[in-house]
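Sanity check record (used in CI):
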Amino acid sequence: MNSVLVFKTSITSNREIKELKPVLNSLIAKNGYWNFDLEDCDNIFRVETKTITPYAISQAFKSLGFYCEELD
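Expected output for HMA domain-containing protein:
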């Protein structure tokens, strides 16, 4: 069963999403689905996955200089 993980991020534009897309696809695409909600004040990033940890996702963002924190 897939888990839904929700993160607050520093992503504010489609340009930044395009920069992250290759990393997110390599990390998540085969094991889930991801999307952003830039209209939300927290610039929400959602992931549906069975196998990826919140830590791995946060580290992927951090490696490219972006902020990403899991919300409870």
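The chain has two helices and four strands. If this sentence no longer matches the regenerated tokens, the check is flagged for review.
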